[in-house]
Amino acid sequence: MLRRLAILSATAFALAGCSNFRDVFSAHADVVARAAGQELTAARLAELLAPQKAVQLRRDVIDRVADLWVDYQLLAQSVAAGDSLTDTATVMAASWPAVMQRLANQLHDSLITAKATLTEHQVDSAYNVGADRWLDHILVAVKQDTTPAVKAAKRRLAEGYLSQLHAGAPFARLAALKSDDKATAVNGGSLGLVGRGVLVKGFEDAGWSLQPGQTSGIVETAFGYHIIRRPSLDEVRDSFRIRLREIDIGRRDSLFLDSLANKSGIKVRGSAAATVRSTVNDLRSAKKSGRVLATYHGGSLTASMMARWLQAFPAQTRGMVLQADDSTLREFVKSIARNEVLLLMVREHHLSLTPAERDTIVMKFRTDIAQLKDALGLTPESLAADTVGHRTRAEAVARRVDAYFTAITSNPPQRPFFEIPPFLADRLRDQYPWSISPAGVDRALEQAKLIRGPGTPSTGAPNMTPAPGGPPVGAPGQAMPPTPRPAPAPRGAAPGRP
Question: Which among 66, 177, 417, 476 is least surrounded, fewest beta carbons within 10 Å?
């Protein structure tokens, strides 16, 4: 890399005195992007974006829209070429987050879940003398600013419920019908398994004083009046066992991940935070970068690998990265390096998708691809009309994409916005030629500003209406990164609840 930079520097120095040096690049400034034999001119892009006052005319915005255009054109070219995009290689590459998640789940099950087994004696002991409690409750809510008369009426209501319980009314049924805590009422008043320090003190003290099978009297808290019950183990044995196992798995997860970070020798480079920020700002260039952010036994985390992970996360993750401080970003890099170590372990254990897992991914991908093509008007039925009059199939798909691109960038947008998922876009860019001209982006930005003229700068992004349900084809965020799955967090106090 250093040698290449030296060559480029020497070339720039040699050309610096050439009067035609600027002209070498300006010849391409009228074209922003090329793909599938089509061109997106700077004038065309400027005409589309300038009228949208909600769009902030910045270079990164113009560049992102050019990326979208390239992705649409490459998808259209694959359709024109008869590529169904459903061959195994394409499906697996485009579904990378889903594939990795399933393999990570297999690794997790073999290393963690299989070891989390509980004997009947352990279940009995944990329920009877463990630190946590399984509690149910009925709440009669009382507002803080209520009058003494209303408060007294509320207490009488709670006392009436208690009398019904003493007369043999089923606790779960009464809670479902009468409790003001609607979140727990649907589960018969069950709070599930809770630990010390989670609930308000008066409720907690009463709950921890109960023996299995006992019901409290009226317990007053800031939320109102409660009737608390600690069910017997036989009533909740299956649910308790599942929750106890989840807690055990969560504990094992934490221990495993802590030991993994130490055993794998992860070391984060001092420049990692700056590299992450530059990766977010230019994912396209980062995908080709071998710059190292962290090292570990058996490999290193590069900018190109980080770009891939950022694509797999929800889009808002990138904004969070740009706002994070250096210390937070170093921890983020460490967690991604740990994920890469887990993927090494997947390979070492020779794990692969089961036939059922593979079929599930393929079926979902095919369905999503069909929806995506339909949204862009690239179905055989939609293209049939465009091939009339001796228009070629390539011309027909290009026309469809141009119409769609115009519709989503109009003001207001005329059609819902579907973004081609990044891992599918990467696959298409590997298969077909394309280019984006930095000089063309600059020219489009310059022309758009001239068309719009002076005025109050906008602060928004392209005003595109997202399609209902979000983007298809395994969009980032639909699969979690491949790390061992944490156990659900215990229930905590919330407004209207203890």
Answer: 177
